[in-house]
C-alpha cells in the first residue's frame, strides 16, 4: 500500500520539477520584455492557473527570479516584479564587458570563417526584426549574436552566468530600444564587431564592442526621465 501511494507522489514531484524551468523562462521573458513591468503583482494561484500547473513549480520559479533580483518577495504579503536596480545593471555591464572584450580578442586572433557566417546570419535576422519593429524578437536576436561569440570561444558556461546577472540591464535595454535609431545602432555595431573579427583586428573588435555595450548606460539620464517609476538606485 505504501508503494502504491509513493509512486503517484513521486510522479507529481517529477512533473513539478520539469514544469518549474518552463514557468521560470516564461515569467523571466515577460519581465524582461516589460509585459510584467516593475511593481506588477505576482499571485502564485493566478500564475498556476495561467500556466496550468500546481503551486510548486510556480513557487520554485519565483524563488529563482528572486535570486536574480527580478522579483521582490514579501512573506505573508505579496510578490511583485522588482524595480530596475541601476547598481545591479552597472555590475552586469562590468561583468559582461570584461568577459566579452577578452572573447572578441581571442576570436579575432583565430578567426573562424564559419563563425563569421553565423554572425552575419544573426545580424541579417536582427535587421529584419528592426524593420518590423519586433523588439522582443530583436532582443532575442541580440542575445543570439553574443551567445555565438561565447560558444565560438568555448565559454558557454560564462554566457549562462552573464545571462543570470543581466536581468536589470536587459530591462533597461528594453526601455531604451524603441528610441529612434537605437536598433539600427545595435545592428551597425554588430556588423563592425563581425568585420573586425573577420579581419583579425582585435583592437578594433574591442573598440566596437566597448561602444556597443556602453550605449544604454550612457543614456541612463534620458531613460530615467521617461520612466522614473521603474528605476531605483
UniProtKB/TrEMBL annotation:
Q: Which residues form a coiled coil?
A: none
Pinpoint the HTH gntR-type domain residues.
17-84
**Mind listing the GO molecular function terms for this protein?**
DNA binding; DNA-binding transcription factor activity
- Return the SMART domains for the record: FCD, HTH_GNTR
* Superkingdom per UniProt: Bacteria
Pfam families on file: FCD, GntR
Keywords in alphabetical order, please.
DNA-binding, Transcription, Transcription regulation
Q: What is the protein named?
A: GntR family transcriptional regulator
According to its UniProt entry, this protein's organism is Bradyrhizobium betae
